[in-house]
Design a protein that fits this description.
By secondary structure, the protein is α/β, with parallel strands linked by helices. The chain folds into two domains: about 220 residues, Spore Coat Polysaccharide Biosynthesis Protein SpsA, Chain A (Alpha-Beta Complex); about 100 residues, no CATH class. About 30% of the residues lie in helices and about 20% in strands. It contains ten helices and eleven strands. Helix 6 packs antiparallel against helix 7. The longest helix is centred in the C-terminal third of the chain and has 16 residues. It is globular and about 50 Å long. The chain starts with a strand and ends with a helix.
Length: about 350
Amino acid sequence: MKPALSIVIASYNEPDIGNTVASIISSTVGSHAGIEIVVVDDSSTRPVSVAPASRLIRNTHRIGCGPSRYVGAVHATGEYLLFVDAHSRFAPGWYEEALPKLLPRTLHCACCVALPPSMDLAFPEAEFASGAAWNFCGPYLSGPNQGDPRFLQVLECVWPDRSVADGGELPAVMGACYFVNREWFLQWNALRHFRLWGGDEQELSLKAWLSGGEIRLLKNVRIGHRFRKGPVSPSFKMLWHELYNKLFILHTCLPPETAKLLQRKLVAQRAPGRYGSASQAGMALKRLRGLASGRDGPGAQRAAFHARLHLALSEVRNHPAGQLTLSPCLPSPIEACMGED
């Protein structure tokens, strides 16, 4: 029997993945026939082990969060998908509340509950029950750079400052807990071209709108998520992969002049801990454009990936809905690493 919902979880060296799966199972007692759990181990240094009730897909090499979610969606068999992170918790009744409200051409955003270190849903640090809004290009709305005109957010989803009713329309999703029809999602060709992590919510939100759909809030579906805190690792000071993903979104989802304007704003940022200096940001842009030659990085796989990127940038001009139809003759890093245990 085909499940109604496939829960897709990408995991890389995530110690809490077993508890996340256990929380899903314990919160859906009596509903197991309608649920499928698909865990994608993104080539963790210690292979993931999960409950037998789950399907486990192992990537043979690391491809990143967004591409791993795409891999999970390809393997999933449910009518709808739920994307969550590997450090989440679920309140009893969430499935029964969500399922009757899922619509085929709607991206649904659940109520994101910020979990404390104890991971107890009963004692949340915050609840974000109004979905997300956009800050396409403007000062930071929170944090140490809030309101400082020297630092801009570009192409960011942000928590809104207004209340939204259950079922209300949203500009964007945020919070690592969103539902979407599987067939509709696969038509978008979303997430599979990204590097490491970052940009998933922006691309999902834009492609839902560009493909003629809508975004709605599931206010009473509470899903807990532990937000990572602490200083940025020195090896991620520049976060060029996040910049790369944003540039990809700009040039495949937005009109050319808008994309160029936001690109200039994006690569000029010097926000601490984000993209580093303008020269470093420019280096990321250079990599985005120039790696198709294969002269940098792990050879043929990377060259093929960037060849697909250049093809996508040319084909998107003929696909104003942002649905990219990429040539099957160019191998994808995703297709090269998919395997199932």
